[in-house]
Every structure is written in C-alpha cells, then in structure tokens.
Specification:
By secondary structure, the chain is an alpha+beta fold. Helices cover 37% and strands 24% of the residues. The two termini are 44 Å apart.
C-alpha cells in the first residue's frame, strides 16, 4: 500500500504537527533520502543539534521511527518524510538498507496501530499551506513580531543584569563565610543561586553554578578549596565581562553571551556570512556523554580535521559537535564512534577560540577507519603551552583538546600520568582516575601518539597510536 497525501493527513496527530512538517519540505533540511524499492524509505533531517535525526518509514503499513525526542507520534520529521514520498516531488535514491534501518525492521512487532484505514482525519494539509502563506504575506505581522522580539530581548537583558547583581552579593557572602569550607556547603548554596539565575533567564550560568559541586567532588579533597576559588572567580569574571560586553572583541563577546545563556540558533549560524566554515575529511577522536543538572544529556563528538577536499591541505584543527537530548529518552549517543571518518562542511559558532560547530552538509556518511591519525609533530610541553595560550584568550575555556607526539604513560602508585617519552621531562598530566584500568597496558609502551581532552586538572586519553596498534577509550 503506497503512501498517499490523504494517508499522511490522517496520521498527523494535530494541525500543529502538519504545520511544522510542511516547513521541513525543503531539500536543504534533508542531507539524504533513500528507498530500497521494496517499501522502506529513510532519510536524515537536520534539526537544531549537530547530528541529523534519522527517520525510517514503511510504505506498506505506514509504520515509522524517528530518533528525535518528540512526544508526538508521528513527529514532524516522520510526517515530512511521508509527505515528500507521497508528493512525488523529491527523488529518493535507491540504496542498500543501512544497519540502523535493519535494526528497526528487526525490532518491529507488526503493522503500526496508527496505520489503519479507519483513522479519523484530524488535520489539514491545505490549512498548513494556507497558514504559512498567510504569515508570509502579512508584512504588518512581521513588523509586530520584530517589535515583540526586540521588547523581549530588552526585558531579558534587564532580567539577566539583575540576576548578575544577585550573583555578586552571593559571591561576597561566600567570601565572608570562608572559602575553605565552601565545598561542604556547595550543594545547597549553589542550588539556590542557580535557581535565581534561572529566574533571571541566565540559563547558561545557572547550569554552570548548579554543576559546580559535582566538579568539586570529583577532585581529591585537598584540591577542592583551590578549585572552588577558581570556579567562583570565573563566575565573577563572566558577570563582569557581560556588563562590559560592548567593549569586548566580537568573538569574545559572543563567548560571554553564550556562556550566560543566549543561544545561537542553527538558522542564525547558517545565515552568518562571517562565520568560519571548513570543508574536508574529519576523524572522530572522542565521544562524550554527560548528564546535566537540567535533566538534559550533553553529547559531544570531537573531530580532527585531516585536510580539505580535492587534495588541498588545510591547517588541521579540532571541532566539537554538541547535542542535547532529554534524559527521559533513555540512553543516547551521537551516532558516531571513535575512529570514524566523515567528509563534511562545518560551520563554527562565533568565538574567540572557535571549536563548537554544526554540520552544514555531509559530503559522505560516517565510515569506520583503522588508519592512523596524522598528527602534527608536537611534544607534550608544546601542546600544554598551546592550552595556556588558549586559556589566556578564553579564561572559562573548560575542556580543551590536545594532540601529542612521542609521549608515554607512566605510573606512580595508583595514579597514571601522560609524560614526554624522553627521560627527564618535567611535565606530567594526571590521567582521569576512571581510566586507570584501561590505561594500564599503555604503561608498557615505550612511546605513543595521543589525542585527549584536558580540563585543567585531568587528562582524558581518547585515542592513542602505539607500536602495538591503536588504543581507543571505550
């Protein structure tokens, strides 16, 4: 049974879903759509995150599955894919069925309950088209909407500044009470100021303050007082920088606003003519999944740029793709594995140290690759100096990627360290304690090339090339 527009209209849970689906009927929103010629169609739709959502639809019974966290079924992405297939205006390439589509097919228990012919139509495609056309043809509505956005922006600016004033008072109170005992009371005190910052619409700074206790307690007890002073100092620095943001360089100003909580939408990023873009081959060198206090899971995919297309070598650099998914959706991953190679064009968020990026358009799918990663000839001390230089530009940098050549892992008691392979080197970065068991075999290697993430206290080893072969952080 082929999909029809009437069928898609009947499946829509409400008119709003159809309205949203219609906005996705643009080729630019779909990096890839394909079919197997036997009733399965699938595609990837670029949402607000770095990784496209994956959608599969069975034409025989209108079954569907989407990787987005929507609570509407079918979601707007599933409806849009069905709509494009039923409309016949988009060409679906015939291709082998991907593994993730086969996984869905194997887990299905039968036809979708929503696929029955007696489903009562609840939405109208004509209404969706007419609604969008009406909005597009009403210039007065656009003027009113622009005025409302500006008014909301000004109100939020004032609210954030009031929240930062409260933060200053809170920080002064912590100093008066003594920072030596701050870690003991951090959970309660940080929760209170985080709630105030949420009310002030400074969501980014609120998340930073609420997660501060967990960062402190992940450190040895002896290191917590100094870390507390540093963390509170950075909060004060962010507040001061926000108040004088107009005097800051453009990239640093963008960093401050994003750290406080002003988002940059994908649409605005793609429309920014000054945004840095890079095209070429990228290797996945690290994947990180972290649950935040706001009940969102933060998914990071760290990429290493291997070079531009058409044989034109570009300066290698790191990029990180960041997605946020609700914790309630269960276990989640970015869809990439360490070692994968992808070819894509990336656009970087405005920053004094551009690293966070979005995929503008994938030029090939992710492919597993066992080839070594070609790293620049940089020893550990040079890599660390690069980190210090970056910290000078962006003091709240947080986690920073490092690539090193000719290093080795050494052990002192139960602690492992990343050191220069040459004897007598005085720099040693402690590895994350959670990596002790996995990193233990590396201590027997005379030298290694490595990529990892340094947070100022611990080095998380993500990838290493040794004389015995490749090591990856599982």
């Amino acid at each position: 049974m082929a999909l029809s527009l009437d069928k898609v209209e009947a499946l829509a849970p409400d008119q709003a879903s159809l309205d949203a689906a219609r906005k996705l009927l643009k080729p630019g929103a779909w990096p890839a759509v394909a079919a197997d010629g036997a009733g399965l169609v699938w595609g990837e739709c670029q949402g607000s995150g770095a990784t496209p959502y994956r959608i599969v639809v069975s034409e025989t019974d209108a079954g569907y599955k989407c990787s987005c966290p929507s609570r509407k079924f079918p979601c707007k992405h599933s409806l849009a894919l069905m709509w494009m297939r039923a409309g016949g205006e988009v060409e679906f390439a015939t291709a082998p069925v991907p593994v993730w589509v086969n996984d869905w097919v194997s887990r299905r228990r039968g036809p979708s309950a929503a696929a029955g012919e007696d489903v009562k139509p609840r939405a109208s495609m004509d209404a969706a088209s007419a609604s969008e056309a009406a909005v597009e043809s009403d210039p007065k509505a656009e003027v009113r909407a622009a005025a409302a956005r500006e008014r909301n922006r000004q109100e939020r600016e004032a609210s954030i500044l009031a929240g930062l004033d409260d933060l200053d008072v809170w920080l002064a109170d912590q100093v008066d009470r003594g920072l030596a005992g701050f870690a003991v009371r951090a959970a309660q005190d940080c929760r209170l100021i985080a709630q105030r910052l949420v009310d002030a619409k400074a969501s980014g700074l609120a998340t930073r303050m609420e997660s501060l206790p967990s960062r402190l307690f992940s450190l040895p007890e002896s290191a917590r007082p100094a870390a507390a002073i540093q963390e509170l100092g950075l909060a004060h620095l962010l507040a001061a920088a926000y108040r004088r943001q107009e005097a800051l360089p453009e990239g640093l100003r963008a960093d401050v606003r994003q750290a406080i909580g002003w988002p940059v939408t994908r649409e605005a990023l793609l429309a920014d003519a000054n945004a840095t873009r890079m095209e070429g081959q990228w290797r996945v060198v690290a994947t990180v999944s972290e649950m935040q206090p706001d009940k969102l899971r933060r998914l990071e995919t760290w990429l290493w740029h291997e070079g531009a297309r058409d044989g034109v070598q570009a300066a290698p650099r790191f990029a990180v793709l960041i997605d946020f998914v609700p914790v309630a959706t269960g276990a989640a991953s970015s869809g990439y594995s360490v070692g994968d190679r992808i070819e894509a064009e990336l656009v970087f968020y405005p920053s004094a140290m551009p690293m966070r990026a979005q995929i503008v358009r994938p030029l090939s799918g992710a492919m597993a690759c066992n080839a070594p990663i070609e790293l620049p000839d940089r020893k550990l001390d040079a890599a660390y100096r690069g980190y210090e230089a970056a910290l000078h530009v962006l003091p709240w940098l947080g986690v920073s990627p490092m690539c090193v050549r000719d290093a080795r892992v050494r052990r002192h008691g139960s602690q492992f360290f990343l050191c220069d392979a040459e004897q007598g080197a005085d720099l040693a970065l402690p590895l994350a304690p959670a990596q002790a068991a996995m990193a233990s075999p590396l201590a027997s290697c005379a030298r290694l090339d490595a990529v990892g993430l340094w947070d100022g206290c611990r080095f998380t080893l993500c990838w290493a090339q040794t004389e015995l072969g490749r090591w990856m952080n599982a």
